Structure of non-specific serine/threonine protein kinase:
Amino acid sequence: MNNDTQPLQGAARLPAGLLLAERFKIIELLGHGGQAQVYRAYDQVLGIDVALKVVLTTHRLAQAEVDSMRNEVLLARQLNNPHIVRIYEFYQTQDYVFFTMALVSGQSLSAILEQGVEPVQLDRWFSQLLDALQICHEAEIVHGDIKPANLMINDQNELVLVDFGIGKHLAAPLQTAGTSEFLAPEVKESGNLSAASDRYAAGKIMAEMLSALTAAERPRRFSGWRMRRQRIAVGLQHPQPHQRLSIAACRDLLQSATANRMAMLGWAAGVAVLAVIGVLLWQQQNTLPVPAVTEQAATVIAITTDSADQELLDVAEFTQLSLQSLPSVYALDVRQVRQIQNNLAIAPASSQRDRERLAELMNSNLLVVLSRRQLGQDNLIHLLVTEAPGDRVLINTSFDLATNRLAAVPGLILETLSEELDQSAVPLELDESTATLLQAIQHALADGDQEQALVLLNRLKEADAGRFWLLRGDALLAASKGNYEQAATVLDKLLADYPNRPDLLAERAALAFATNDLSEAKSYYQQAVAGDPSQAMWWFELAKIKIIQGDIRPALDNELLQALVRFRQSEDAAGQGLVLNAFGVAHLRLAQFSTAADYFSEALTYRTAESAPSDRVTTLSNLATVQAIEGNYQQADQNLQEAQKLVAALNDSLGVAHIENERGLLMEEQGFYTEALAHYKTALDIRLQAGDDYQQSQSINNVAFIHFLLGDFSLAEVYWRQALQALEDMEETAVLHSTQINLAQLLVIRGQFQQAEQLLAQILAHQDISPEAEFATYLQLSRLNFAQSRVAVAAENISQAISIAERINDNRAVTESLLWAAEIAVSLHQHELLNKYLAELAPLAPEFNVEQELYYQWLLVRQQLQANAYDAHTSGLLLIDSVLNRSVSRISEARILADLAGRFTLPADHAIWPRLEQIISPAMYEAYLAYLAAQSKSAVQQTLRAQLARYPLYWRNFEYYTELPGSEADVLAASALQRLYGLMNDEQRQAYQEFAARRAP
């Protein structure tokens, strides 16, 4: 036998009675394909019948091919699922390559399809096929030959996947005879099998099963049940592998019963990858979450016409208005359809491709196309109704205006549609007062004319309209007056009559948002986009809520991406600018500044001064924020100047507030805190007048933080507690946590440890804590624990903070955590650990802001002091001069100067002393203790003793007591040291003992 190849195997049948591997006796041929034959065989060792698959080739098998097949079979052998045939053994003899499987008794699906299937069987078997494919694909196994003949329905009415393909392991081209209709396009072209090609075949099987539904059990054509299964079939057969539905998406479409309906996730061609300044935005469609569905799905109808023909537009609008009152129909807004049609410059009346594109973008089941036709002397309104997907023509008729009034055409259209929908609707005629009112109300609301809409709504209530329109009018009237709770109550009545209507759900979500009930708003928007995934603005509103609540990364990965894709598909420039700006804001909140700047810059290409001046102001201000943080102060100032000019022309007070807020940040980043406070207060005053709670809370937070940096702790606390009250009522989770962390930091600095600990514990206990908030909480916990001598726990806390900062790729967070970790190490005289942290900080130094740069230099000076470096004194004096002559926060200035004053011998007339006396107060207990200890005057010793008694748990008490005279101080020093040792880990204790031995009295 040749060790490298196997002899050629022809397609002739193996004779009954042939013994393979001296164990398996051939009984009969069960089936065959291009690469293999499957036999029933008797296993003489186990005494059972098995299925035996013999490989057929047109060439001599190389040993590498055999080994590849063996590995795949042995891997498949590990699969344990009732819907996958059990694989036994792989064999290689001199003449044959084969493997054995369990023998499944029953009928093949191909045989059953000829008899017809029932809906319950279709769902059961397809769900089991999905289970089988998921198990295979999770194990990185591709079946390669999914077709009805390879799906057995056993005696227990369970589907079993029985025959694994082997074509991908053969060096010769894949043979496709007999199964080509189930092969994906890329397989036919290149022979490359994949999980996506398996899913393509599954889509073909779904289509076959739908076609095989028995007439008595066939659901109505436009029922939710059939609609979703058609979408599974079409979505799985997308020509582009990466755009096919995922198994999870199929399962949601097939099984879920919790929301309205679901649309196929396949996107329009050409939207596979979205790039913004070279940053990859796009993820495969099948990775996006699929909204849930219910059996009571409405038929989605989009009506389109020539937007230049006002009479046709009136007919389209009145038809859509009448359809709105049907519970089982969801008629899309004609204006929205027209806008997308205009953006794309498409002509659905004359182009099948344009109709398919529009139906896919609008996610509609039916597309109603109205157009004018002139046949000789006849003036006709042509009605074309097609079913999606596939553009199958359902209605193709015309109405002669010589025999029909134009006002009667909507009624004729509805009558014709009712035959297809199995529905009835009360037609609206063009000259009816109710119809005219409804159209006028829609136009007034769309144009933002609230006053005119209010007048018309009152007239509508006086008219003899149906329940739907009276309730709709009540809701709109209440909302226009600001009575959002009343409007919500009315809409709830409508939703009881029209459950899961996407447009009503979106209106209900907007009302919940207006009353600051973000959780309820999110829930309603989720239901709305489940019912109509084509609505980009609903996706955006949902993303906005999630970002506000701190769910930033999920919003980036799903809702914002959904919105951007849909706006790009419809070539909506304003929408793209809106979402790109939101992407920038989200990345800004994640501290991914370069990425945020890229998005803001891209958004500006859509938000021009001519087309969207107000929006441009917003994005310019946002971009200036990023540039200020990154130290590009000149660019930030230039962008704010441009924004200022636009705002002046617009007379936009909120725009002024936005710019003032960003001016404040620009000043803050440069260390000009007094100037920053002035800008922040101006922004706050404007926002208080405007009544925007969310923006107010942000401005309050900014003002409080500057007061904190300036050492005005009482004012900072007042502002932060005011912000907390507003944020708790608003469910603003992200900003709420940020404010709580800031307040906790203030409390730690003031020595109010118990209150700080309670705040931080509340954040960690919150179920919706973001990674950013979790990082900041552990950072403050570390400071809190260290201050109270729990130094081992503090080290654990900061390690957690560093880990989180690195995981979320936030360089600022990494810098802050490493600076504090290095301060812990230098304070405990852990020299090697200090060197490690300083080495990790060095590459980040170019991105330091003013405060971080000073803290870094302070740590370097302390490192030099501990190493007895000859130039430590010079470095220390230079740093003192730098702090005294730079604009620095009061907290940083006090901490650094008080510490250095105690480490160097400075003359009494040095500028540091009057400055410390000016800026330090007992409220900064840590800096105050260092300041007292640094003074050699005996007059302050009693004050130092009193302060140490107030903070008996402070980690540095041992050092300070050794500075005081008397035996009592010696006893207290020894007690403080022993307590500190008891709260250290071994490494900390060993390092500090060497220092303490030199320090002890």
Observations:
- Residues 384 and 396 are 5 Å apart (CA to CA).
- The longest helix spans residues 119-138.
- The two ends are 90 Å apart (CA to CA).
- The longest strand covers residues 366-375.
